[in-house]
Amino acid sequence: MEFEGSELIRSQARKVFDFITDPLHFSTGIPDIQSVRVLSADRFSVTAKLGVSVIRSTFTIDFQVSDKVAPSHVRLTGHGISAGSAVDLEITIDLKDESPNTALRWRTVARVSGTLAALGQRVLGAVADRFVKEVFDSIHAMLEAPNA
């Protein structure tokens, strides 16, 4: 499953880049997050509930931040497992300075296997699309908050 989107954020490109490459900041946008564990500046682990309706499972997803080209490009990859299911994510983010704003374009590729994948691509695709949009909507809101 692939998802793409864009945001125009009222903030400087460097500030947006620093925010999304900081594990503690980026992970705050993940819905139903339970915990974050920072392993290094470019590695972190997130525990969150994922799924559809009552069919939900707690995943621990290990993320790696790579391909950093400050302040214009970054890639995050993640792999997570839960009882009977696995998820692999690749998130590519490109930033363009449009002072005083930043244009943010993102692309996410998600692969799910196991029990959750058995729900069907159509249902799972809609849930994954909503999940990714919630992450970027949250990041957008946090960066534009008055005290950001």
Run of helices and strands: EHHEEEEEEH
Question: Can you identify the CATH class?
Answer: Alpha Beta
How many domains, in number, for the residues?
Answer: 1
Number of E-type strands: 7
Q: Going by CATH, what is the homologous superfamily?
A: START domain
Shape: globular
State which percent range the strand residues make up. Answer: over 45%
**Could you describe the largest sheet, including whether it forms a barrel?**
7 strands, antiparallel
Integer-rounded radius of gyration? 15 Å
What integer is the average pLDDT?
Answer: 86
Into which percent range does the helicity of residues fall?
25-40%
How far the N terminus sits from the C terminus, by CA atoms, comes to 33 Å
Low-confidence stretches: none
Using the coordinates shown, work out and report the CATH topology: Alpha-D-Glucose-1,6-Bisphosphate, Chain A, domain 4
Summing up helix and strand content along with how strands pair, one would put the structural category as alpha+beta
Tell me which CATH architecture applies here: 2-Layer Sandwich
Helix count from the secondary structure assignment: 3
| Order of strands in the sheet with most strands | 1-7-6-5-4-3-2
In short:
By secondary structure, this protein is of the alpha+beta class. The chain has helices at 13-20, 23-27, 121-144; strands at residues 2-9, 33-40, 43-52, 55-69, 73-82, 85-98, 101-114. It has one domain: Alpha-D-Glucose-1,6-Bisphosphate, Chain A, domain 4, CATH 3.30.530.20.
